[in-house]
Amino acid sequence: MRSGEINLPGDKVRDDLSVYANYSESLAPTSPRVNLLNEAELQRGTQYEAGIKYSPVFPKETLFTLAVFDLTLTNVPHEVSPGLYDQIGEVRVRGIELEGKLALADQLSATLSYSCWNPETLEDGISGNAGNEPQQVPNLVGSVWAESTFPGDGLRGDLPVGAGVRYAGSSCADNANTLKIDAHTVVDDAISYEFFENATLQLNASNLFDEECVSNVDTSSNTAYYGDGRTVRATFRYTW
């Protein structure tokens, strides 16, 4: 991937405000699990992005970012018959993203993000699908994550604790837009403990309440697939 970014710093009056613009190109291989009609080609992408960053004087370590983008992908695999795909697809996603990183108090911070996407299928080789929404791309995505650190007292190390919520709006199950996948919300949390300066044990739980949500629908076989259920992962890290 190659990209270029231009940052325009704020003036002397508003040095807490900056503007940026970015252009990037990307290449990605096609999954070998996809049964292609023709020889596989690299998926190519181009993205234009512009945004504003605002960092107020108080509270410190707080940053707000507002960005707009235009992303186009070509050679996207699309199903042309049951179980058979061709890379004639072209998809464009335009959207706006808002993110805030806030220092709410000593040892307490929060991160909020919200994205509104307008996905569109430009070409997929099927008559009537141009102009539809590409499958499995939601219009709305958002998350909230809060983290607090309970400092050590000499007998024990720091104890960071975090929890958050992830939301994905409804999306189309197929490129013909005949079926919808419902919106869903899941809760995550994390806790870690520092034994020493160089040893940490961390526990992460995703989809803490084991919410059942459909992540994918195969219209050719009338089969629906669920997303990941409750997952707990333990990590021990030691550095020297």
Number of helices: 0
Residues in β-strands, percent: over 45%
Low-confidence stretches: none
Rg over alpha carbons: 22 Å
Gross geometry: globular
User: Overall mean pLDDT score?
Assistant: 87
Query: What string gives the helices and strands in order?
Result: EEEEEEEEEEEEEEE
Describe the sheet with the most strands: 11 strands, antiparallel
Detailed description of the structure:
The chain is globular. The chain has no helices and 15 strands. It is mostly beta strands and 240 residues long. The protein has strands at residues 2-8, 17-28, 43-54, 63-81, 84-105, 108-123, 140-150, 159-168, 171-172, 180-181, 184-196, 199-206, 214-218, 223-226, 231-238. β4 and β5 (84-105) form a beta hairpin. The strands form three sheets. It has an eleven-stranded antiparallel sheet, with no helix packed on it. 0% of the residues lie in helices and 63% in strands.
Which helices and strands occur, and which strands form pairs?
Elements: E1 2-8, E2 17-28, E3 43-54, E4 63-81, E5 84-105, E6 108-123, E7 140-150, E8 159-168, E9 171-172, E10 180-181, E11 184-196, E12 199-206, E13 214-218, E14 223-226, E15 231-238
Antiparallel strand pairs: 1-2, 2-3, 3-4, 4-5, 5-6, 6-7, 7-8, 8-11, 9-10, 11-12, 12-15, 13-14
In short:
This protein is mainly beta and 240 residues long. The chain has strands at 2-8, 17-28, 43-54, 63-81, 84-105, 108-123, 140-150, 159-168, 171-172, 180-181, 184-196, 199-206, 214-218, 223-226, 231-238.
